[in-house]
Each structure stands twice: as structure tokens, then as C-alpha cells.
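Researcher: Please generate the 3D structure of the following complex. Treat every line as part of one assembly.
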Amino acid sequence: MTRFALTVAAGIAVGFLASTTPALKLRGLVSSITNGDCWVTVEGIGSKDADPVLRAFIARAGIFGNSKDKAVYFNGYVGSRVKRLKGGSHYQITGQTNIPAAWWSITLYDADFFLFDNADHRYSFANFNLKTDDAGHFVIDVAAERPPNATNWLPSPNAGNITLALRIYEPTPALYEHLATYPLPRIVEVK
Amino acid sequence: MRRNVAYVVIALAVALLFGGLRIHFLPERLMAERTDIYVKQAGGHNRFVHQKLPDASWREFVSPSPDLLYSYLVFDTTQAPIAVEIPGHDDYWINQMVDDRTDTFGYVGHDTARGGVSKFVVYSDVTPAFDVPEGFSTFKSPSPTGLFLLRYLVRTPDSIDRIDEARQRIRVWEIWPGAKNS
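Model: Done. Output below.
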């Protein structure tokens, strides 16, 4: 009886570990889609067709996300898609504002996924408020201090993890059917 | 040896069952945690809570968009369907309708309303029979309760008051049998 009870307890422990957030993240990693080696998203956000494990991951990581014809969501990375970006580093995001969608934005989150408190109250940039050149090309500087000549400065913490979230609302099929390949803004780290 | 294999099989079966149930019910559990909060904030079901524009002090949920004004309503259709009228608005807005398992079952928004008033009724399998008011579309929720997530785009700080005024004019009411509904 004791051995049976221990067996059941071991099964419960394994089942618990296999259903925790880190385990779900592994499932999310398997279904992740990368774009341009700097944006990552997950197939199946807002879809009932995702398997139960992926649905659980999405519910934990991005509850109430819209289906891809309503919105697509990417997180930015440089180098490794499993590592968060770093406060204190200087990143530049460059691209064109004419992504085919109703509108889009890039938002910075702090280590706890809240908006970073800064004197400018600047938390994001969108296609409608970016300063661009005559060709619609923009540069966003993500940094703790405003870099000289920065046209669009997105203040960042001086340390700790950060996240850059690209949200594209009502994308066209040309974009949401080609999440891995549609040209999106680029992120580089400025050394 | 055979007994050891049997114990391993039992342990794996228990792990699969326990872990599987936790995973299967995770969306519902997360949904219930959220809607409990929203019902308390609203003072009941079928009432909208209108939030301020997210800033660094925002703690309602993680990763909010600072370009959106959020509102939410936890609906309950067990006693009656609910009718909603959202005033016309000339920029991006969307009302996402979500069931108890966090699955979306319907949308209305700027693309469906095209600047006009959006009128719709939400019901479920357990809702008593009702007459649909004229001019209203209908959405059937897979569960008796669920959530509306309403989002408005804020292009400039100047648009906040205008959106707030529109939000205050949103009408929500239950369609009771025999009552004149309009």
C-alpha cells in the first residue's frame, strides 16, 4: 500500500512539474516563429485549433490575444530568442512605417512586464507618431539616456530585463499568412 | 521486474491524468481569476468598467498597450440575453467577445460598424427564449458567462476625452421576457 501511495505521489509530482509555466514555455518555443532574426511570435494565438498544451501556454503568456487577422504580436530579440533584451544596452529599431495594417506600435516593458516610468512618459511609438525621413524610414533608439541626434527615443531602464513588443492590428493576409518572412523593422544592438 | 514496470506505468498514468487536467483547465482558471476581479470592480455582471490610459502606474494586467483605452464587461446570460449599443466612433476600436475558456466567439469594431452605432445581443444555450430587437445582430457564447474586451485607439492625448464620452454612452441591458426592449 505504501509503495502504491508513493507511486501515485510521484505521478502527481511529475504531472505537476510537466504543467508548470517553464514546461509550458517549452511548448511555446516549439511553436514559435521568428522573423528577420529579431522578432518572435507564436502560431496559434487566439485560435481554438491550438492543442491543449499550446492553448495553456498562450493563456498564461498572452491571454485574450486576438486571432491573427485581428492582430499579430511579436517580441523583439537580439541574438537568442529565448533571452530577453537588457536595460542599459542601446538598441536601434529601423524600418518603414508602411506595414500593411490599420496601425502598429512598438512598446517597451520593464522586467515585470509593466510600462517603464520615465520623465517623458514615453512608453511606445506607433506608425502615426514616429518621426521619419522623407521616404517614411524611421529609427527608434532604445536606451537609458537619450543618444545624441536621436529622432525617436524610447527610454529604457538602466539595468534588468526589458521587452520590446511589436503589435500589428488588422494586418493584411500578405503579412499574417507570412509571419516568418514579411519584412518587419530590424533591431540591432549598438555597441 | 514486472511489478516495477507496473508501478512506472501507474506513475506515468497518474502524471498524464493530473498534468493533463491542470493544463486543460488552465485557461478557465485564469479566466475565472480575471473575471472575479472585473465583476468586483464593476459591481456586478453586465456592466462595463472603463479604465484610464495605461501608464507606468498601471497594474490591472501585464503588458498593456499605452495606445489603447481598455474597458471590460463580464456578461452573464443565464437569466436573460444582454443587448449592447456602442456609439459610432471614427477611429480604430474593437470589442472582443470571449467565453469562459478564453476563446473568442465574436467581434464588433470599427470595421463592422463603419462609423455607425454597433448593436448586438449575446446569448448562450441556457438563455431563455427572446425576441431580437430590430436592427441588432446576435452572437452566441459557448458558455453562459464570459467577457467583453473593448479597446479604443488613442492617437493623441486630445482624443482621450472624446473616447471617454463615447464610452459613457454605451448602453447595456438585459432583454427580459415580455418587456419592451429598445
